[in-house]
Amino acid sequence: MLVLAVRPVQIDPYWQHGGHAAINSVAVDGRKVSVNERPYATFSREPDSFAVAEFKNGDVVRLIEKGPRKTARRLRSDSGLLSAACEFAFSLAPGASLAVVVSSPMRDGVEPRAEAPFDALRETVAQDWRARIGPRKITVGDREVSDTVEAQTAFILVNSTEFAFKPGPRNYDRTWIRDGSAQALALTWAGLVEEAKAYVLWYAKRIYKNGMVPPILNVDGTVNRGYGSDIEFDAQGEFVGIAADVYRISRDRAFLSAIFEPVVRATRFIEELCARTDAQRGPETRFHGLLAPSISHEGYSKPSYSYWDDYFALSGWRNCEFLAHEIGDKTVVAHAKAKGREFAANLTRSIRMTAKKMKTGLIPGSADRDDIDPTATSVAFEPCRVEDALPPELVAATYDRAAARVKEISAPGFKANYSPYDLRNIDAFVSLGRYGDAFRLLSVMLACRRPRGWRGWAEVVWADMRAPEYIGDMPHTWIGAEFSCAVRRMLLRENGPTLELFRAVPDGWWAGEGITLNDLPTAFGVANLRAKRVRRRTTVDLSLTGPAPERILVRYPGAKHARADGSPCDIHADVITTKVWSRLEIDF
Q1: Are strands 551-555 and 498-501 parallel, antiparallel or unpaired?
Q2: What's the CA gap between 133 and 194, in Å, rounded?
Q3: What total of structural domains would you count in the chain?
């Protein structure tokens, strides 16, 4: 006997913003079931028995637990606690099979069709998704890494609407420029540049006249007026940053023309936010020159002077300068350059003053909360690339703390929870040359994917996988985008006119066929790369379709000799420096 039940509860429990789902009417009519006067499901065959029940010391499952029990086909109640069960009897000979097809629409306006050829439809949908995602862009010797990177592209698209990239499928039914900009970058690097451009252009049309970037939009494009509305000021730099990143890859002049004026407006609002602070704080204080307080930082429930916002603001000025140079607006170039320098000096000064006040040799998370948050600080490395504003004497100890946290959450006795947002620290560890810490964190993050085998992350990970506690949305595609981007930067990173390869490659990535980058979009055109290790030699074949980098840096620990198209290369501290080449041979 197969029993399919309709019950007044959501899959998500109450601690996951789920729980009760009111059912006030149920009707079973042949192969069709209606709930609350709407089509709910159709079956490929009529149930042999059915029951509908009001809640009385248990739902319909209690009613039929001792055997089939037919009831009236329809029932109404104001309790919201109705339930129904449809039972299908069968007898199977050894090796035989039986299928009952259930068609249940996931949104209004869709007619359930249990007679549809679902096997064929499934194959068609799979082929459509394969065509949309395109050929795999990144393949390494560790198959789990390659599969997980590609899965994030699909998850982002599944969670998205026509224009908006959402961080999750259920709890976060809206779009933040914070989450969306990371996802747009991941899609850009996955070859889906048009989808990323459409998102940026869609957002650009919704920037206020005064230049404020609304941090949260509803999926229909209206401004979300819920918690966080208009007081998350990281949005300014995030919008400018993703506009610049998409242009660096696409080199689309029409796109540049469309986003340039909104970009300039967004950076001018940064000035207004700094003016608000300066009007309340004197030039001698640690707050001088910072953005006004906001709640952008995930852990801040009240407006604070978060350095997170300031890292994005500084990147906003620098990206504005880049875009102005590209479009040929010398006035904006000069203004953005001057403002960027001024802002960087104020930011570095503030961090030093706050660290001194706290009597700590660590980088503070904010100017007013006496907190340390390496994961938030890591955005200064990527995607902001403003790490030069961090006081160098405070950096090492800050990331010692981050490394200690990795060991803590991966220890056998760990009982609490953490967020895979910690993925951001991979970028910082790599930039600082702390490769062992980067690889250790990468392994921890791969181990905390949920459910196992699905290659996605929840927003919150509990040591006890079955803990009845909040996990956020899953798959969480902001976290997934951070993972994809981190892996891409480990393998290939543009740094102005320089192309950096293999910045941080775990030994396992060289296994089997090694490393393949297939039609990977870069600032130097489309890159195709094949790298394989055989005995004591690694051979790398590379082609680029766009403007050539001025130099290529290849990090290869233990390299003894290297030849680029037959010519000897310089090697210093495991880094090979060359001009553009088609084949690089490395002896180690």
Answers
A1: parallel
A2: 12
A3: 3
